[in-house]
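Long-time lurker. I teach an intro course on protein structure, and each term I like to show students one example going from raw sequence to a predicted 3D structure in C-alpha cell notation. This year I'd like something fresh instead of my usual example. Would anyone be willing to generate the C-alpha cells for the chain below so I can use it in lecture? Attribution to the forum is fine with me.
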Amino acid sequence: MTVMDSKAKLSKRNKEGYYIVKPVNSIKEMLKAAKDEAGDWDAYQYRIPDDPENGIRHITYKEFYETTENLGAALTDMGLGNAHIACLGDNSYPWIVAYLTVLKSAGVFVPIDRELPADDILRIVNDSDSTAIFCGRRFEQMILDNRDRLPAIKYVISLDAEENTDDMYSMTALIERGRSFDRTEYDSLKSDENGLKMLVYTSGTTGIAKGVMLSEHNLVSGVYYGLQVSQPLSKGLSVLPYNHTYESVCDILVSIHKHSTLCINDSLKAVVKNLQLFKPDYIYLVPAFLELFYSNIMRTLKKQGKDKLVFSMIEKSNKLRKVGIDMRKVFFGKITESFGGNLKKIVCGGAPIRPEIGKFFGDIGIWVIGGYGITECSPLVSVNDESANDYNTVGRRLPCLEWKVDAPNDEGIGEICVKGDVVMLGYYKQPEKTAEVIQDGWFRTGDYGFITPEDWLVITGRKKNIIVLTNGKNIYPEEIEGYIMQIDYVIEAVVRGVKNDHGQETHLMAEVYLDGEHEKQDVLRDIQKKLSVLPGYKTVSTVEIRKEPFAKTTSNKIKRTY
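-- Reply from a regular --
Happy to contribute to a lecture. Here you go:
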C-alpha cells in the first residue's frame, strides 16, 4: 500500500515558521524508524521490465529494510563492513539498496557519475580508495576489462545479474546469501558521525573533479533541517541522477524520513509517461526540465490557438482565488492531466528559476519551489516553502546555517559564504584546495548574490562567469540570459563579453540556439527589446545563432568554454 493522504500532511510549524520535524541521529536510525512506523507503506515503486507498460513493482519499507539487512550481513562477512565502496549505474531500485546498505554500515559510499568517460571513472575509483564496486549492467564489461587498472578493487558486484560468475558477484545472490547470516555484526557497525561517510566527486566543469567529503552528520543535518523549511508530499517521481546529492540526499533520504513513496523513473525519455503511470504529487527537477515542460505547453497551446484563452483564464482564476475560490483544477485540468493529474509540487534546484515560469505553474495549480544548494553543502543551503514562495529568490536558509555576502558591491552583491552543520569536511586528499574555499569555518560557494532584508537569498551568477567591462561595470551573464530566455523561440542562450585587441571586454554578445529559422537582425532586435528594462551597459550588441545545442555537463548545465 502507498502512503495515505492523511499520513502525508505537512508537519505543523513552530513560532519561527519552520516545520516541526522529528530529530534523527543516523541513517540507520532513520531507516529503522521508517520500517517501524510505516512498514506496510510503499517505500518504492518501479516499472517491471517484463511489463513496462502497466506492471508496477511495489516495495514496502519493511521489505526494503530487510533487503538492506541481508545485503549488509553478506558484505560484512566479505570484510566490507567499513570499506570504501563505489557505485556506478543507472537509476534503479538496486542502486538505492546498495546506497542505504553502505550508509548503514561503518563504510564510505562513493557514487560515480554514470556519464563520465571510462578513464575518468577509473581514476575516481582509484582516487577514492574503494575496495569494491557495485556496477550496473552496461558498465560491467568496462570494469572487468580494466581490472588491471583497478589494483585496490577486490570485489565487483553486479546490480543487475541474477547469479554470481567467476569474476563478478551478483547483488541478488548476495542478498539471498545474507538471509542465513547473523546480522549482529552488521547491525553493530557504527560510523563516526563527523568522519567521512559519503565521497562525492564534483562534475569537474572547472578541471579535474574533486572528491567532496561528507559526514553522516552532514547528511542527517541536510535531511533534518531541510525538512524544517520545505517538505515532500506523499508520492514522488525520482528522476535526477542518483550520483548527485540533490537527488540522493534531498529526495531519497528525505523521502525515507518523511515516509513518502518514491517512484523510480527508468529513463529520461519516459518522464512524462511515468508521470502519467505513477501519478505522483511531487517531483524534484532542475530548471532545464521545467523549461522543457513550459515550452512544450506553450507550443501546444499556440498550435491549438488557445494560448490567449489560457492566460485570460489565469487572470480570471487569480481574481477568484483572492476571494477564496480556487477553480484551477477545473480551468486547467487538461494541462495538469499531462503530468498525471495529481502533481501539486515541483522542487527545483541547480540554477535560479525564471520567475514567469514559476508563476505560470503556480497559476495553473502546481507549486514550483525554488532552492539553492551545492555539493559541498550536502547539498542544501536554502529553499522556498509553500507558505511564502518567492520565485525571485532561492528561499531562506536552513536553520543550522549562517550566511553572509563577502565584499558586496554598491548593489549589495558579493560572494555567498555559509557556515554550519551541512558544510563538507573538505576535499579528499586535497588540503590546499580545501583551504581555498573554507576559511575560518566559512565556505566560499563561488556563487554571487545578495540577501534580502527578510533574510532570503537571491543568486545573480557564478563568480567565475562574471564579465568585467572596460567601464568597470560587473555583469552577471545569468541575469541577462534569463531575460533572453523569455523569448519564446530561444531554447538556449549564453552571454559573454567581447574583447578588444588589448584583451579588454568592451561590450556584450549573445550566442543562442533557437527553435526554427530566424533572421539574425530579428533575433537581435527581440533580444534588445527584452533587455530594454535593464541599464544600458547590460544590453547586447551582437548575436550569434548556433546550429546545434550547447555542450552540457553531466548535470545538464551548459559548458561555458570562453
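Some talking points for your students: The first strand starts at residue 42 and ends at 47. DSSP finds 18 helices and 27 strands in the chain.
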